[in-house]
């Protein structure tokens, strides 16, 4: 028999899981709002410090909560009755969570660093640079994608659509 969390343990892991999602979602909303604020900066220092704050939010309210959500989600799947590969909604959440984390590391983090470096060098003139603006709009779109995916994952956690993953019948 595999290990199972007690009800009290499960509840604490669920609390940690939900809080991490709330932090991650809050960070994504902050990134969206600050991205918009960045695009309307009227001083070089405002642009630079907005990007500096976005970097801080990325480092604290997005990275760690995302990893905590992944770990607690896996713990809840493995050590409760749900299982990782029993239900479609759990598998969808796992794939989306890993995809968002990889996207955040490979794309959004790189875009934010690029914007930060450019703003440090050019200050307000960066807002006239086509490459800077293209990257800024990508970052803004990434924030929208994060928010959309997190809201979708929250919804499927409650509605649990598509049911169980059916095992194919084996021929003897």
TrEMBL record:
The chain crosses the membrane at residues 12-34, 61-80, 87-112, 139-159. Keywords: Membrane, Transmembrane, Transmembrane helix. It comes from the Bacteria. This is DUF2269 domain-containing protein. It comes from Paenibacillus chitinolyticus. The lineage of its organism: Bacteria, Bacillati, Bacillota, Bacilli, Bacillales.
């Amino acid at each position: 028999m595999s290990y199972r969390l007690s009800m009290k343990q499960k509840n604490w892991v669920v609390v940690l899981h939900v809080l991490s999602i709330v932090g991650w979602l809050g960070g994504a909303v902050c990134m969206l709002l600050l991205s918009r604020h960045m695009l309307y900066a009227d001083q070089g220092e405002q642009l630079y410090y907005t990007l500096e704050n976005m970097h801080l939010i990325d480092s604290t309210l997005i990275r760690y909560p995302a990893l905590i959500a992944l770990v607690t989600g896996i713990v809840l799947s493995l050590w409760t009755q749900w299982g990782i590969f029993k239900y479609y909604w759990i598998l969808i959440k796992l794939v989306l969570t890993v995809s968002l984390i990889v996207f955040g590391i490979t794309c959004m983090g790189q875009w934010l660093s690029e914007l930060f470096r450019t703003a440090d060098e050019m200050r307000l003139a960066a807002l006239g640079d086509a490459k800077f603006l293209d990257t800024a709009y990508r970052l803004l779109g990434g924030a929208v994608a994060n928010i959309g995916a997190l809201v979708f994952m929250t919804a499927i956690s409650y509605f649990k659509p598509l049911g169980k993953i059916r095992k194919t019948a084996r021929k003897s």
